[in-house]
Amino acid sequence: MQSSEPPASTPSAPPPPARRKRRAIDWPTAVLIAIVGSCAAYVYWRDGLDKFIAVVWDDTDLFLSMLPKVLAGCLTAAFLTVLLPREMISRWVGADAGFKGILISFCAGIILPGGPFTIFPIAGAFVGMGADIAAAVTLITSWTLVGLNRVVTWEMPFLGFDFVSWRYIAALPLPIIAGLLVRVIEKHFKLGMTRP
Amino acid sequence: MIDLIVTFALWLIVIALGVLVWRRSLPLLRESSKSGGTEFIQLLPRICVGVLGSGFIAAALPQDFVVRWLGSSSGIIGIAIAVAAGAATPGGPMVGFAIGAAALKGGAGAPQVIAYSTAWALYAFPRLLSYELPIMPARVVWLRVLSSLPLPFIAAAVAMLLGKP
Hints:
The complex is a heterodimer.
Chain A: H1 27-83, H2 86-94, H3 99-111, H4 116-128, H5 133-146, H6 148-159, H7 161-171, H8 174-189
Helix pairs in contact in A: 1-6, 2-3, 2-4, 3-5, 4-5, 5-8, 6-7
Chain B: H1 2-24, H2 26-60, H3 63-70, H4 75-88, H5 95-105, H6 110-122, H7 125-135, H8 138-148, H9 151-162
Helix pairs in contact in B: 1-2, 2-5, 4-6, 5-6, 6-9
């Protein structure tokens, strides 16, 4: 019997960091495709072809208006990654463990672009460098709730300028509240950094 | 109009940053533009799905159901439902925005939609499990989750206080 496959344990070539690989269709997208497909089929069955086409037509408009913004967002993210290396951000925030650390993380979260693969490693690096967890939590919260890149590129095209600016104002204090809450929880439940 | 201004401002930022990168070196500019462009192309199929989704989900959602359970008169119960739904929605660049826009078109109240998209942005449980936990120390993740619990409710309350735009 012939085996064309190489032996299972080749000593060379360490396993690639598979987690970082990005596929065009990941499973949240697959779930969404399933939901959208069923909704589209249901609309076609209930309202007929005319309504179906009207919906697609509306969506084409939205799609075309999004493209230049998304491209700009992707380029901004790529340029900022070059201009502001991860270590630099970590140094800014990591240096200060007081309320100022929370404020700096808050601002960093607003301007930092990119997906979860940029933000979580930065936040993880803070903690590794001995910055307090409150700063890391503020950064993640600020990035998810009031990060400009995400808001302008993704949220505005769907929800409109008025709605989003209103939501933005409502969400602005939240990252700082989250950071302060971490402090409170740490203090009361003795979950603070374990010192080596 | 506002859409045009926003797009214009975005491209001004791109050009300014591009010049800064170019001043470091031309190959660096070429390389980073290429990585930004690749990212864009990879996102295209998701954008298509998300955009089509916002239209079709909105058209398919039973309007009286949405108005009854998530309408502006649904109050705190509507907000609680919205928060639970947001936490259960998978991550990805815009799944939550697409569904939020659909609900808004379908008659949901604005504070409820804000609670939904805030909860989705903070939790998105599938993202939490597959991205965050493998990268971050578990204690940090749980502290973040715990300290974020009241945030969607605060956002909705502030939105109610501010009144409709």
